[in-house]
Model the fold of this input.
Amino acid sequence: MRIGTGYDSHRLVEGRKLVLGGVEIPHDKGLLGHSDGDALVHAIIDALLGAMGRADIGAHFPDTDLQYKGISSIRLLEHVKKLLDENGFEIANIDSTIIAESPKMAPHIPGMKKNLSAVLGTENIAVKAKSNEKMGFLGRGEGIAAMAACLIRKTGKQVVQRPVEP
Ligand code: MG
Done:
């Protein structure tokens, strides 16, 4: 078994959609980013990459690369699932937490879990949410953060053995 952890945060700004776990959440602000700014998916991607011993999300999907501009982070997660498959890993479980002062995440968590499960091929995904008790940048609603932990294990079915960047 191999463990990975991930953390991400994005600034909340006007004129952007709020997307977390691939779910568009009605809100007066959205997350600023080169992609759709989906901090939850980014934290999960970093956890999975870390567990595989790979470089982080920024190395895989550089924010200077125009092909990732405005991309749905779910597409990036699909790429990471492919890396897992190709290298003979399966996910044991993922646990994650969104930290946001508002809006309320609870109604949207089932949709997030459904999106994540569909890409990652496992139901063993937890998504939790909490506020930051009005403390700090998260508490002032300046941004939203997420963290994730995952366990992966070797399936013994390594599909291809090729150097995968980076
Ligand atoms: Mg990010």
Q: What stands out?
A: The longest strand covers residues 2-13. The pocket of magnesium ion is lined by residues 8, 10, 33, 39, 42 (CB under 6 Å).
